[in-house]
Amino acid sequence: MAVTVDDKKITQQVSIGGKQVSEQSDDKSINPTFLYSSNECYLGTCGTVAGYSWDKLTIHLSQADPNFGNTLNLMNATSSGFATSDQGKTWHAESIKINEDYFYSDGSRKECSV
Q: How far apart are the C-alpha atoms of 98 and 14, rounded to whole Å?
């Protein structure tokens, strides 16, 4: 994933195996703070999300931020951590592993049986 910011917009690009598979641009007034997953669970139906990972995640900042690597806050996940080789303009994490999660209206933690 690469995130770029210019004067008017924030663009997020996702690549798999070197091929771009997704791109989204938003007005610069938004605050791109979260990478998250979810599913939609209606009427207590199946709401288990299998674990997965974001691999080789790179974030390009418009200005160097030497503290950006310390801003990663994980919930139900682990990470290799962010590192920079250019004093904080570009950040790279080898992996972020998101653990299996449950989204049931009753708060239960059960495996999907659908």
A: 17
Q: What is the pLDDT along the chain (114 residues), one digit of tens a residue?
A: 666 677 778 787 777 788 888 787 878 776 656 665 544 555 555 567 778 888 888 888 888 999 988 887 787 889 988 999 999 999 999 998 988 877 666 766 766 655
Question: Is there a contact between 98 and 41 (Cβ–Cβ < 8 Å)?
Answer: no
Determine the Cα–Cα distance for residues 93 and 105; give it in Å rounded to an integer: 33
Tell me which DSSP letter residue 44 carries: T
Angstrom CA distances, 52 to 18, 85, 104, stand at: 19, 27, 19
Cβ atoms within 10 A of the Cβ of 91, count?
22
